[in-house]
Amino acid sequence: xPRVKSFAPLLRPFAxxxxxxxxxxxxxxxxxxxxxxxxxxxxSGLGCPTWPKCTDGSYTTTSAMGVxxxxxxxxxxxxxxxxxxxxxxxxxxxxxRPRRRSLVWxxxxxxxxxxxxxxxxxxxxxxHLNPWVVGLHFLLSIALITVAYAFWRRIDxxxxxxxxxxxxxxxxxxxxxxxxxxxxxxxGVIVTGSGPHSGDRGAKRNGLxxxxxxxxxxxxxxxxxxxxxxxxxxxRAVPAPAAAVRAALTLVVVEFAQGLIGFVQxxxxxxxxxxxxxxxxxxxxxxxxxxxxxSMRERAALPQEAPTSAAPTPAQEPxxxx
Length: 322
Fold this sequence. Notes:
Number of strands: 2
Order of helices and strands: HHHHHEHHHHE
Number of domains: 2
Mean pLDDT: 86
Distance between the termini: 47 Å
Number of helices: 9
Shape: flat
């Protein structure tokens, strides 16, 4: 029976570039937030008025759709970049030696999240930019960023049970900070649904009072910053890894920058450039939050994950007979 040719040589280049590919996937998922913001802030949400086609008779934008069609169609095209990166990451996970099931499944999760995002985006268009569906579309991006970040970081980790690197009270503080960060993002989505930038001049808003919901959002931001600063000081006061201290400081800096943009945009009546920067900041705040969580624990390699060397080590070399 002829021997089946191995696919290992085809997978090897993807495995060699696995970490850069995973980082590119993470960056592209954050970029999707920015391109989505561009669609909404230029009133191009219905630039392609149907889905999955752009118009009833064309999958691509037409000259009749104008610049709004180009912007909306361009945002849709980013999906293909995400799909390419997801497939490349999956092939890299398959070619990784030793092959690790955790990496393969995380790459699959990222891959399946992208068409789900496309479907929710299609529902957004078909519901004429319902603000709650638009919010779900954004939160799904946050979920995809989470999985993409986990995939990127797990490449350099093992698959053993996570071992804490900081005392239990600090882990609780880290969990509370994470919950506050997620609450800030979620309420920020509701604020967006009450504001003027709907994605189309005829799109409905969620009906909530923008000033009231913005105040709730601001209160949560103050809570998040307070928890993050407390976590940073606490990590400095105990024997915590330097990476954890840096991660906490990075989170605090990103939060202050994001908070400054938020306050300026509110009191200058939401100029589109600042709103776009604030949308990017939301993705960066969440990514920095994930960085803090990862820095407070580690995963060792399981015994079967240890790489094997083709040549014997000196301790493994046979002892010559006397």
